Amino acid sequence: MLDVDREEITDGPVGRVLLVLAAPLVAQNVVYVANALVDTFWLGRVGEDAVAAVGLSLPIQSLLGATVVVGAVGTQILVSQRTGDGDEAGARRVAVNGALVALAVTAAVALPVVVYAEEVVALLGADPALAGTTATYLAIVIAVLPVGAVGDTVENCFTAYGDTQAVFHVSLVGVLVNLIAAPVLIFGVGPVPELGVAGAALGTALAGVAGLLWILGYAAGIGRDTFRLTREAFAFDPATAREVVSVGLPLGGQRGVSELVRVFVVALVAVAGGAAGVAAYTVGARVATLAVVPALGIQQAAQSMIGQNLGADAPERARRTTTVGTGMVVAGFLALGAVQFLFAGGIADLLAPDLTATGRSLSVLYLRILGASYWALGGTYTLLAGFNGASRTRTSFLADLVKYWAVRFPIAVAAVPVATTFGAFGVTVTPGLGWGVEAVFWAVAASNVVGFLGLGGYFLYTTRRGMFTNAAERASGGDAEAADAADD
Fold first, then answer.
1. How much is the pTM?
2. Which residues pair with 427 in a beta bridge?
């Protein structure tokens, strides 16, 4: 793979540097998603119920993944800013304290979920036939959430530093472990018993542990000499930990509000579409996760570039990184969406060949609807990179609050049959309009488009008011209070 000198991040051609930095991250995310698709691929050979069981657990996993974001992304943003400002010791101090934050926050939420996995799954209103299997899968995967959180945080330090190839290597190790472990544990080979869905979860857990060990080796200087954690960095610094939390918490909130809606939406899908609807939603969600990989890679690279340029007092270059990245992603995703629309049937057959006729029909429909909104979905990632790199992480939180709660969820509720009632705190409502599970699919696409257009308009407004200039003053130790006032 091509490499980028640290000087090029603040001086080289924006488009080229962004693509070179993003390339290993895109490859890393492809590998990461492949890790998830391994489960769907093999469990699709077990049956529709197995796919649906994992699908029911996905929103809960993603919701809890919001706690990972607090430490991991908060650390990335601050490490990139300190690196751009030449504060190497400060960057290492952020890395250690960010990892401690990630470990503490994720452990606090993982333990009760593991203990009460069956009760958590029951809240989704799942079919009793699926609930037990789903709870088993969920408990195993969430038990290793703190391990993944620490690994992600340390990986993000390498990304912030500009060494994106290290992150790709770690993900490749993880997926290779899962590629071997998943079929062995799911179907049983030799002395290994057939574990089914539980085997898929164990394969995922083993991959996470392998990835953590690999990135810690790099951080210790084994096989890599870019971002290294020295002995002096291993000291708890309350001020640095608070700073990581202050930057990362809105991003965790952003992830949380979006994933909480997904939990509710899956419950709506289960009511409106049954096992076939959940399986179709799972297929669409898995494919969409793979489709956004390029945008996610460019977002991660852009956040590091923007942070380093703000630390180096180059606000105009930070703005240009955002706009160039967004333009590239929107153009690419228009083409990607067209391909998915045309080959939706083949994609569904490849991932889950044993779907019922209804499940396959719904999967094809959802894949086509998703493809039509990919340009907006991808562009949103790079727009958010601009705000996140400038430490305006509250904007990301508010943008997703509107996108998911004001647009996606109200439309999705219309899918529920009219006769269905929901009760809480003595109040019973019948919100459904009986539009069918297809309404959920359209709700996802509509929220993607509205979210991108609204965020784009706000980006133009804030940049004209000097968002990046003010952020550069903060990052380089200027008049932070004046910069904050100007942003507001």
1. 0.71
2. 424
